[in-house]
Amino acid sequence: QKEVEQNSGPLSVPEGAIASLNCTYSDRGSQSFFWYRQYSGKSPELIMSIYSNGDKEDGRFTAQLNKASQYVSLLIRDSQPSDSATYLCAASGYSTLTFGKGTMLLVSP
Amino acid sequence: DGGITQSPKYLFRKEGQNVTLSCEQNLNHDAMYWYRQDPGQGLRLIYYSQIVNDFQKGDIAEGYSVSREKKESFPLTVTSAQKNPTAFYLCASSRTSAQETQYFGPGTRLLVL
């Protein structure tokens, strides 16, 4: 059974701090990795995708991938209260994505 | 405006009743997916389709059925065999396969009367 593991949280950070979200995956064949943000009662929206080892930056967000350690992370710089949401990590298989259960992030003003 | 639409937003099911959730996309995507989300459970795959007239079971297909007669449409039927249907149902699509980004519709919340 392919698995994606995330700490459920909540992860609490003050406004302006860096939030670090982590994810591990079991399928060594996974090639594509995604971070989605989901506000309560809403559907997931894509934050970042990453396919190669290393870092990928987009604005305040940086995704990091280490295939040898089967580890993906998302850093959010200058966290804002509007970043408070559940963050879902997903790893691709041949035909499907496997999602983690998500980490809840709370950013306090 | 390109995107994925799901209807209805809320759906109520009576005991023994089959209900159908609609999912339509105008992104010209080949692949479509149905997920179920329960509180604290993350997303679980029900069915997926990579091409018209073909679909595969996901991890929790029992009690559900789908069809893919048109590229744009992938309706999900929750049958009376699904004994615990209360959940948030999400439809998604991707250009070709799961290696590419999946985009989600707004979801349908199904409640049992």
How are the secondary structure elements laid out?
The complex is a heterodimer of chains A (109) and B (113).
Chain A: E1 4-5, E2 11-14, E3 19-25, E4 33-38, E5 45-50, E6 54-58, E7 61-66, E8 71-76, E9 85-92, E10 97-99, E11 103-108
Parallel strand pairs in A: 2-11
Antiparallel strand pairs in A: 1-3, 3-8, 4-5, 4-9, 6-7, 7-8, 9-10, 9-11
Chain B: E1 4-7, E2 10-13, E3 19-25, E4 31-38, E5 42-51, E6 54-57, E7 64-66, E8 76-78, E9 87-94, E10 103-104, E11 108-112
Parallel strand pairs in B: 2-11
Antiparallel strand pairs in B: 1-3, 3-8, 4-5, 4-9, 5-6, 7-8, 9-10, 9-11
In a nutshell, what does this entry contain?
The complex is a heterodimer of chains A (109) and B (113). By secondary structure, chain A is mainly beta. Helices cover 0% and strands 54% of the residues of chain A.
Notable characteristics:
heterodimer; A: six-stranded mixed beta sheet; five-stranded antiparallel beta sheet; globular; B: 113 residues; four-stranded antiparallel beta sheet; 0% helix
The global form of chain A is globular
What gap, in angstroms, lies between the N and C termini of chain B? 35 Å
Q: Shape of chain B, please? A: globular
- How many H/I helical runs of chain A? 0
Distance between the termini of chain A: 40 Å
| SSE series of chain A | EEEEEEEEEEE
What is Rg of chain A? 13 Å
Number of beta-strand segments of chain A: 11
